[in-house]
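User: Some background: our group keeps a shared notebook of sequences we're curious about, and every so often someone picks one and asks for a predicted structure to add to the entry. Today it's my turn. The entry only has the sequence so far, pasted here. Could you supply the structure so I can complete it?
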Amino acid sequence: MRNILTILIFLFILSGVKAQDTSVDPMLIELKAKILSAADSSAIPYANIILHRTHSGTITNNDGYFTLEMLNIDSLEVTSVGYKKTVLKIPSYYTGFEMLTFYMEPILYNVGEVTVEGEAKQLDYFEHGEPTAIDPELRGDAFNEKPPVLAAFFNPASYMQYYFSKREKRKREVRRDMAIMKNWEMHSKNYNKEMVMKLTGLNEAYADTFMVWFNAHDVLPYTANEYQVRSSIVEYGKLFKLDYGLN
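Assistant: Of course. Here's the predicted structure to add to the notebook entry:
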């Protein structure tokens, strides 16, 4: 019994020492870090960095670099179009003198293979002219529109095929994913710091603050077109100037 009691006391003391070693005293630091893509180690520009404790944040620059004043026990939430939301935790040994590197996982879309069967008709270019190039996601819209309820009575075969054919569902999913990817490319060209400065007249420092403020309002869906992106930046730029007392 005495031996068992001695072992228990020893384990209790050991666990206390271990807990004490792993505890970290809160300390104010200036984090210097870079956000890279886990796919190819390329920089992720204009990623949103949010510090929920202070309801503040920043964004990465063109090289994926950012700095932020925070506590060494804080965690950061990072979001960027085309990447999975990531939570960053600062190593306990970090003091703010060196630069840390973090990686984000890209969102990958499993686009299924679509097999088109049939014989291709030979075109007579002298009679019909050269074929017009059309984006794949814009082809055949009439055949991908949702059929009305009346179609179940007048054309039940087409109605059943639209709702129950796995092949038709897969083709619609492919078209939707292609459209989303194309919109992400458009967003990256029209929603960046240079465009914000051009459309709102803000300087570089306020443009960074505006992008964090704008992202927090969650205004733009991924399906927004170029006009919606730019007009939203102009409209919310005016509200931002009112909030911050800018002329």
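Suggested note for the entry: Confidence is low (pLDDT under 50) at residues 17-22, 125-134, 136-143. The first strand starts at residue 28 and ends at 37.
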